[in-house]
Please model this.
Amino acid sequence: MARDLTTNSDRLIEESRSLLRDNQAGGRFRRMRSQPIGRGSAELRAKHFAAKLTQLTVGVVAILVAAGVAGAILNGIGFWGVMCTVLAIAVVFGVVTRRKIKVPKRSDLNTGDVRHMVARTELWLEHHRPALPPPAVTLVDQIGVQLDALGLQLEHIEPLHPAAVETRKLVGETLPGMIDAYRKIPAHLRNEDRAGTGTPDAQLVESLGKISKEIDSVTRQLADGALDDLAIRTRYLDYRYGAEGTPEALPPPDPLAELNRLPDKDKQET
Model:
């Protein structure tokens, strides 16, 4: 009997530890899902927060001014006036803080300049990230970092450059279209293998991996052009000023050229 109690106690302790580890892992995963995936979406969220803070400040100040004016006219607003003021401030606070950032529509992703396209795509991905399996979430976070680097590269090339056009199609159309197609699949069918092609979860992870590699490839190609330009400028500096960064030695003076610079009188004397 004692042995059974000991065995059951050990089993309960181990299950409790396992449950604690799962909860901790789930908490970390939920925190990861709530974080911005890139600098562009983080800037949009910061602007949204600043706008809400401004609205809240203006609303509270307006209520206090109105209460002050009413108190001056009525010679005090009394207890119920104070309660109405507090209630009005609470209502404004609740309305403003509940306003969530507007998620861009899929049709609006591939519009505007490159910086805004990247920011909107990152924000769109963050909105749909909770519906993705954990491996896909990791890849989406990775793609967010890659989009930041790619956006900086695309800002310095022509909008009609083949790399810019192809990247816009990949980031603004192919990527969101694939996630939309995945989300249309019922949750209980996403882990079922269909006709030997793999589960929808596995297909999504594989496709996101290919997109990540393609974004990295385009970024490296554009960076190679910048590196080549830097190398050319460095070689020019070496040729013009020497390898050590000092001006090259000037050629020796030409005696005939010096003689031609002298006045005619000095030439005759010479």
Summary: The chain has two domains: 34-102, 106-239.
